[in-house]
Amino acid sequence: MHTLPPHLEKYSEIYTRDPRQANLDWFRQADFGLFMHYGLYSLLEGIWTDPYVDFKGSEWIQWWAPVPRQDYMKLQQRFTAERFDADAICRLAKEAGMSYVNLTTQHHDGFSLWDTQTNEFSSMHAPAKRDLVLELCEACAKHQLGCFLYYSHGREWFHPDGPDTGGGGNGYNSCKPICDTDYFHRGDEVNLDSYLDLVEEQVLELCSYPHVAGIWLDGIGGFKNMKDGVRLSRAQDLYDKIHASSPHILVAYKQGLTYTEDFYAPEREIREGSLPHDGRPYEICSTLQPQSWGYKRSDDGKHHGPDWVMDQLDQARRIPANLLLNTGPKADGSIPEEDILTLREVGRRLREG
What we know:
The protein has 13 helices and seven strands. By secondary structure, it is of the alpha/beta class.
């Protein structure tokens, strides 16, 4: 018997009949959520030896710089997350008028923020020795916030058979860090199922965490641009297993890979004709930094302020869609002070109507 998630307390009657419908009904009214891009890339702050990377998103620094794989993996020994405070994050989200939180449990670099049993490239095997996903799930439940877990499915720079953006050739490995070409399998050597077996195991680990509201998949270009990519992705099979793991859990994959997702979550805007009008909810994700999703030091003092956020909320509501607003925690896990001030002011304005 599954326990009613705290964020669905007001939907308990519907939950007894149809748990997933109760979660969908809640999501349609959720309106506003907090996104957080946090990982090893946060330690580099958008800076490597080549200043060329400085105008790209810091979460992509391993590819844009490029950072040699072995050098990048050494960052694990510097990952302490000493100021990552899940309770404070949830209190800030509530103060900002938000209904849910979404954390990058694993970005394109393959580094996990939970106690995965699949490998040791995780926060549990770093100096932090912490399961940040469990901490956030528990804090969200305490504050009656929905907890969504981001997972990079269609781009991967850790597994030698991971997919990519499909920018050329047969669609494999055209967006891998160019300094590690010998590490990644190519052409007929690629065993995509080996990678997808790992994905399934990791995603189902995440589904086992308490009160997870949904799994939010990313990297859609890796399969969209691959010949027969939707079938090769095994996405529908994964969705079915996610849904079977919990009666209420939702699945999203950006603007839709199979179009059987529970809601669509395009980046920054909804382009005309890009989404089907099939009655499923919409969510738009955007970021408080000018472009980057992970923390980028050169953007300090340039983050969007409360007027911009209120305008984004207004635009989303007219669609209608939820707004998932991103902040990039610093290397130590703390949220940038300018984002804290902005979110508090947004919350004040929302409370005043």
